[in-house]
Amino acid sequence: MKSIFLVLFPLLLELLAQRSPAGTIVEFELTSTNQILGVVDVELYDQDKPVTVNNFLNLIESGAFENSFFHRTAPGFVLQGGGYFVFNPSSTLPMTNTFAEPPVGNLGVVDNFGTITGEANVGTFYSNTNGTIAMALTTGPDTATSQFFFNLTNNNGTTPGEPNLDNSSDRGPFTVFGHVINGMALVSEIANTFPQAAAVGGGPFTDLPVFPTVPYGTYGPPYDDLIYYNIRIVVPSLKITSPAAGFHASNALLTVTGTAGAASGISGVWCQINNGAFNLANTTNGFTNWTATLPLIAGENTINAYAEDQLRNFSLVTSVNVISSNTFLLQLSATNSSSSLGGGFGFYLQISPGLNGHIQYSTNLSNWITLTNFVGTNTTIPILDPDAGNDSGRFYRAIIP
Q1: Does some domain include residue 146?
Q2: In terms of Cα–Cα distance, which of 22, 40, 21 is closest to 30?
Q3: Residue 14: pLDDT band by 50, 70, 90 thresholds?
């Protein structure tokens, strides 16, 4: 039996907690007979159904749904999955159930984190309408674990005689925690037009949707004809291209560069140095390429960055550590009387935070005279030598006592 582990990433969870109002996007890649049938994109209701969505995302991240398949189709009603998986989905042997619940033979039961509290009436109420996804129940509203279903029609009692999954008198209400934003036609095709088959021995597998190949007669469908799904959380991509891990910096300020991408486009890239605030990076092409200038401290520095797409999905946080000697960068540039520095010779100093010192000049590199003092401010400090010109032959240095 597969084992699952709950792994929490505090920084990522903090970002997810800031999400509003769009929800996490997950992609179902549907396959059968070792070929891709298509993808179905679902937006989840993170804000209104936090327990249900977090449970579902944890199941995805843990790998609980690996090699899982849709085990029940009821045309015009629901397409259900999340309950079982196959050890070898490429097997061409007939699907067999020996009159018992899996695990047995090639079949296994999807592990879960236990039952969760029903959230149908938490936050906004979402009805079991066509194109929504909801949690399956066993005996009551607080019995959902891992099984879910897609509503193939409005299962909310609007049609006389049809099931009402919003009704609290029949185990429910069933918690709707998302809706299909792309690919519902594929869901409907599989549930309503693909053949139905039963495993040898039946059990919970009497209404299997299968890939349309040949009639199975008294034999169950081969395992590779089942409809499998691979679910992944759709997040933007982000990469820090420079500096490399372990880079030794000798300047007070470090320019970080990187790339980011998402199908919906990137709305922002945010960077953090050590435990400081996240600040928006700079870009000229929609954050496909981005840069950020960050102040360093002496010793090890941790750079964190993440991207957000147009649907308000967050990338994973990418980190890189660099080492700084906490020295300063002295940038020289000539000025004239019409410059912002006034007449004379001007230059700029970039300095690490908290470092104080003074600027000195010399004409022979032996005797040094103090020109002015400075205090590190994380910004570019203008320095002016009013008695010098571009051809004065003076040398300058910054001294930190």
Answers
A1: yes
A2: 40
A3: very low
User: Which residues partner with 384 through β-bridges?
Assistant: 346
In this structure, are 84 and 95 located in the same domain? yes
The amino acid occupying position 103 is P
3-state secondary structure of 389: coil
Q: In this structure, are residues 352 and 379 in contact, taking their beta carbons and an 8 Å threshold? A: no
Place of tokens 């179902």: 28
Predicted local distance difference test score (pLDDT) of residue 329: 53
Q: Cα angle vertex 89, ends 86, 92, to 5°?
A: 120
* pLDDT value for 391: 61
In the predicted structure, residue 57 carries a pLDDT above the cut 50:
yes
Tell me how crowded residue 2 is: count the other CB atoms within 10 A of its CB. Answer: 16
Query: Across the chain, what does the average pLDDT equal?
Result: 84
Token representation of residue 163: 């099931």
**Does a structural domain hold residue 5?**
no
Asked whether the bond before 21 is cis by omega within 30 degrees of 0, the reply is yes
Q: CB of 210 within 8 A of CB of 226?
A: yes
Report the C-alpha gap between 2 and 143 in whole angstroms: 22
Phi and psi angles of residue 185, each rounded to the nearest 5 degrees, phi first: -60, -35
Q: What is the DSSP-derived secondary structure letter of residue 116?
A: B
Supply the range of the domain harboring residue 343: 329-399
* Contact (Cβ atoms closer than 8 angstroms) between residue 136 and residue 149: yes
Helices (H), 222-371: none
Indicate the residue among 234, 255, 275 that finishes a domain. 234
Asked if 173 and 122 touch (Cβ cutoff 8 Å), the reply is: no
The tens digit of pLDDT for each residue in 160-179 reads 878 899 987 667 799 999 99
User: Do residues 274 and 227 share a domain?
Assistant: no
